[in-house]
Specification:
Shape: flat
Strand content: 5-15%
Helix content: 40-55%
Number of strands: 14
Number of helices: 20
Radius of gyration: 31 Å
CATH superfamily of the largest domain: P-loop containing nucleotide triphosphate hydrolases
Oligomer: single chain
CATH topology of the largest domain: Rossmann fold
Largest sheet: 5 strands, parallel
CATH class of the largest domain: Alpha Beta
Bound molecules: adenosine-5'-triphosphate
Length: 478
């Protein structure tokens, strides 16, 4: 007797296409446009497999999923959706879907998934594990570029495939690596990260594979390597382009043979680790320069994920900005908003430091500006500071006035409504005189003649000021 597949989708066209493809593949198919009918069939004990859409007129397929799994833990459910956020994929996974297929999908692929779902032995029920998660997105942004990424991630959720993440610094490579781990099937195992650029080259091999006592000078005890620490979980190799060639050879062997030896060790150790690598460098160019092994590249580049720079998805900026504002608020600062003009300005910035730069900027804005709604000029000012090149000989004055303005603004911001009653002009100028003279003296190493020249002051005037302001040479500073 052929298996019966229950299909729920409110799109008539999809129902027709699925019916044709599945009937041709030898299955009986029943279709409905709503969740209620699907639920009735399931509770009547009908069907051997469910294929359901997420958004249906009466109920969300993802909300129905836990009830189906509770009632009939063995009934496999395939979820399909056009809502290509990572959360949809993750939820489908967590709530017990057998597979998640982002629309549009390939019919052949669907039939293959159906075949697999019906042929695998029924596993132990895990309905109890279905938890209602808080709506917390690990990755923010709904631009087309990010949706492509979510789609790829969703497909990778139930696999152990090696992934290579490329993208400029601060685009979220580590975040994606963590998401792959935390929502994948290894989530109960460890996530271990190693940044090749952050450790001395000669120590990389021993960091990765561990070493035996006495393996090299300074190896006073046996040490665990990251491979050992990551056993059963995921090993994130960040800045892989900076890996020395000898370590590359060793890594390649591990990937080929599934085992390694520690530095100074003899016996092979079996390893069960999923590798995710990342780089902001162009590995193909490193290969041409002889700095990266081509065979290793192909081993690592099984599934490439390219994270776009933030300037290529500026439509994500408002959502990201709000996300960081609420993150800062969770850390104890008052919750702030950003006015439209300010937001538009953020969208126009080029963000060489990508999402990390945006996050840092939002943190500064939230901390430094008293207003509840952050205005355009506050953003403008922070961006000017970012965009201004380090002061050159010629434009020292420009850099200086900006710096002074920034400090004055910080002063005004810090004293809203409580400014001194009068005399601010004289007071500010007086207050500036002392650090100005003291710092100039420091820069000239206490040479008063030179300092007078730099300041454009008469030597005697300078001497008098030093005395009046009680600046005692270099010590006047701190
Ligand atoms: N899509 C995103 N949603 C929310 N936060 C993000 C996103 N992308 C990046 N971030 C945040 O930006 C910061 C930088 O991200 P991450 O460290 O993952 O970047 P990276 O590409 O690994 O950088 P690097 O190459 O410099 O190591 C982190 O604080 C991360 O949480």
């Amino acid at each position: 007797m052929s298996s019966t597949i229950l299909v729920a989708d409110d799109d008539h066209g999809i129902r027709t296409v699925l019916t044709q493809a599945l009937t041709r593949a030898g299955y009986d198919v029943r279709t409905t446009s709503n969740a209620a009918t699907l639920w009735r069939w399931v509770s009547d004990g009908d069907g051997d497999l469910v294929i359901t859409d997420v958004v249906m007129p009466d109920e969300n397929g993802l909300d129905l999923l836990p009830r189906i799994k509770k009632l009939r833990p063995d009934l496999r459910v395939i979820v399909m959706s056009v809502q290509n956020t990572l959360l949809t994929a993750v939820k489908a996974n967590e709530r017990g879907a057998f597979e998640y297929l982002p629309k549009p999908f390939d019919l052949q692929e669907l039939v293959a998934v159906v075949r697999r779902a019906l042929s695998l032995p029924k596993s132990a029920p895990s309905a109890a594990a279905v938890a209602e998660d808080e709506e917390r997105l690990p990755l923010i942004g709904r631009s087309t570029a990010m949706q492509d990424i979510y789609r790829t991630l969703a497909r990778l959720m139930n696999t152990d495939l090696t992934v290579m993440i490329t993208g400029e610094s601060g685009t979220g490579k580590e975040l994606v690596a963590r998401a792959l781990h935390e929502y994948g099937k290894r989530r109960n195992g460890p996530f271990v990260a190693l940044n090749m650029a952050a450790i001395p080259r000669e120590l990389i091999e021993s960091e990765l594979f561990g070493h035996e006592r006495g393996a090299f000078t300074g190896a006073t005890a046996r040490a665990q390597g990251r491979f050992e620490q990551a056993e059963g979980g995921t090993l994130f190799l960040d800045e892989i382009g900076d890996m020395p060639i000898e370590a590359q050879t060793r890594l390649l062997r591990v990937l080929q043979q599934g085992e390694y030896t520690t530095v100074g060790g003899r016996s092979a150790i079996k390893t069960n680790v999923r590798i995710v690598a990342a780089t902001h460098r162009d590995l193909t160019q490193l290969i041409r320069q002889g700095l990266f092994r081509e065979d290793l590249y192909y081993r690592l580049n099984v599934v490439p994920i390219r994270l776009p720079p933030l300037r290529e998805r500026s439509e994500d900026i408002p959502e990201l900005a709000r996300h960081f504002l609420s993150k800062v608020a969770e850390e104890g600062l008052p919750l702030k908003a950003m006015d439209n003009a300010a937001m538009e300005r953020l969208k126009r910035h080029r963000w060489p430091g990508n999402v990390r730069e945006l996050e840092n900027l939002i943190r500064r804005l939230a901390a430094l500006h008293a207003e509840e709604v952050i205005p355009l000029d506050a953003v403008e000012m922070e961006l000017v500071n970012l965009e201004a090149p380090p002061p050159q000989q010629g434009d020292v004055n420009e850099g200086l006035s900006e710096t002074i303005e920034r400090h004055l603004r910080a002063y005004f911001d810090a004293h809203p409504g409580s400014l001194p009653p009068s005399g601010l002009y004289d007071r500010i100028l007086r207050e500036m005189e002392r650090p100005l003279i003291a710092l100039t003296l420091e820069a000239t190493r206490g040479n008063q003649i030179r300092a007078a020249q730099v300041l454009g002051l008469n030597r005697n005037t300078l001497r008098k000021k030093i005395k009046d302001l009680e600046i005692s040479g270099l010590k006047g500073l701190k």
